[in-house]
Amino acid sequence: MNMVTKARFGLSGIQLAVHVGTGSQKAGGALLEIHSPIDGELVAAMNMAQAKDVPAVIDAAKYAFRSWRLVPAPVRGEFVRRIGEKARVRKADLAEILSNEVGKTTQEALGEIQEFIDVCDFAVGLSRQLHGLTIASERPAHRMMEQWHPLGAIGVITAFNFPVAVWAWNAMLAFVCGDTVIWKPSEKAPLCALACQKLVNDVIAEFDVVNIKGLALSSVIVGMADVGEALCSSPEVPLVSATGSTGMGIAVAQTVAKRLGRSLLELGGNNAMIVAPTADLEMAMRAIVFAAVGTAGQRCTTLRRLIVHRSQHDALVEKLKKVYSNLPVGDPRVPGNLVGPLIDKAAFDSMQDALTQAKAEGGKVFAGERVEKGVPAKGYYVRPALVEISAKAKIVQHETFAPILYVMTYDTLDEAIDMQNGVPQGLSSAIFTSDVREAELFMSPAGSDCGIANVNIGTSGAEIGGAFGGEKQTGGGRESGSDAWKNYMRRTTNTINYSQELPLAQGVQFNV
Ligand code: NAD
Among residues 45, 325, 318, 73, which one has the least CA distance to residue 187? Predict the structure, then answer.
């Protein structure tokens, strides 16, 4: 549906003229131009889909679902295994597109594609483990059991900053669960989506275990928020998994709830690390810098608040200032550069606004300025900022999607945990301590209220094997590992009577 009319950079054989499912209608919506955040250059242009195009895509995905749900789950696993194999072969190409499209360093882009590959492997194993329980019945000669069945054609809406991994967490699990997937990628990162769709289309075309040719198991619709809204409002889409800002999540949740559909929300974070008196400062410093400045502060799990024990504060801040002054900021494709560009001017402006507000609230701002020397001309490059500020400042409550690290001090662990939990978001958290009591308290019911609580590890860079997601305004969803697959299936409870009587539950008598 979205035909790329112009595309640049080493796509090395990934043909970007991609279709929705296997049809090839041309989209008639507005022209979308994709400028690389690295240098502002136009890298591609395509016509977007519109809300009115969505029902046809849903129909095709629903039609495909009718066959796909009957394919044995391990065969669906084989399908995902082949997607993973293609991703392995094209890892460098995909990483190159990703780096060019969203400005990640090559290392981080390779890491994101590896996440795609890892979740394929995970899903293949899962395809033989989608099992339910056998439950003791209270009635003689009866058996109860649970089964997990495929859900339908599901919607996946993704953010710009993890354009491949988040889709893969959802889609690979959904495929083995027997669902078909309609993907609405961020309008800031459609090329990654089209490249991934191309891999999946190739696997569909070559698949020789069952005939799935022509089936829209996977579809991509490039469009703006109205296209996402059309997916959310359709009663034909039983689940919408949406990743993005909290504002977007609230809109999605309301639209989906109005028709009593299911939503799985992965929204903004405001992640903190506590650095305790017994912390290994050298290790903490390395973890802080990766979590705070990696991906130029544009991860949902980016470290945004550092809560440091008063005894460690001065030494740690001094170390951090030294490291921050020397961070290699520049073209993310150049080996050695650790901080690439912000996604666009709006991101730069919101970073500068946040720093202005922090100053107005008494914050001491170190760095945060635009870098213009030694970087490609039209990109928005910044030196990551450190801001010493009170935990009571209002700006600290917000997720500013840029590399700003707010530093605060504490005296008791209870106070630190209150500060850590005292924001509306609840995604990721960490403590650096060598004291086992502190570590256990931090992970206990009286500790961090986040979906992720780490000890002696930073807030970002989660592994795919765990359930990923957060509480409060982060939306409550869990994706990727553990039992997140249950989101993509429906549960049926079956009671089977193999006696010749018809006893009723709870001993109820009803004789006719
Ligand atoms: P965004 O909210 O601007 O957009 C995300 C997606 O939602 C896009 O595809 C957009 O077109 C779509 N959208 C926007 N409004 C919509 C609506 N009303 N209905 C349906 N779809 C709509 O987010 P972004 O700037 O692309 O990404 C950054 C945000 O995403 C940050 O807040 C970050 O923390 C969050 N994020 C969260 C996670 C997580 O797992 N928790 C992961 C990555 C990013």
Answer: 45
Which of 162, 300, 471 maximizes ligand 1 atoms within 8 Å of its Cβ, making it the mutation to test the pocket? 300
Nearby residues of 329 by Cβ (< 8 Å), 6 or more positions away:
337, 338, 339, 371, 375, 381, 382, 383
- Amino acid 13: pLDDT: 44
Catalytic residue flag (residue 266): yes
Strand 479-480 relative to strand 467-468: parallel, antiparallel, unpaired?
Answer: antiparallel
Three-state DSSP state, 495: strand
Instruction: Confirm whether 300 is a catalytic residue.
Output: yes
Measured in angstroms, how far is the CA atom of residue 242 from the centroid of ligand 1? Answer: 7
The three-state secondary structure class of 181 is strand
The pLDDT tens digits of the residues spanning 127-158 come to: 999 999 999 999 999 999 999 999 999 999 99
**474 Cβ inside 6 Å of ligand 1:** yes
Between vectors from CA 486 to CA 178 and to CA 85, what angle results, nearest 5°?
A: 50
One-letter amino acid at 348 equals F
> What is the per-residue pLDDT across 456-487, written as a single tens digit (0 to 9) for each?
999 999 999 999 999 999 999 999 999 999 99
Question: Which atom of ligand 1 lies at the shortest distance from residue 186's CA?
Answer: 9
Strand runs (DSSP E) across 389-488, as ranges?
A: 404-410, 425-426, 428-432, 452-455, 467-468, 471-472, 479-480
Each residue's pLDDT tens digit, 191-233: 999 999 999 999 999 999 999 999 999 999 999 999 999 999 9
CB atoms within 10 A of CB 254: 11
Query: What pTM does this model have?
Result: 0.96
Nearest atom of ligand 1 to the alpha carbon of 268? 34
Looking at the DSSP bridge assignments, the partners of residue 496 are: 143
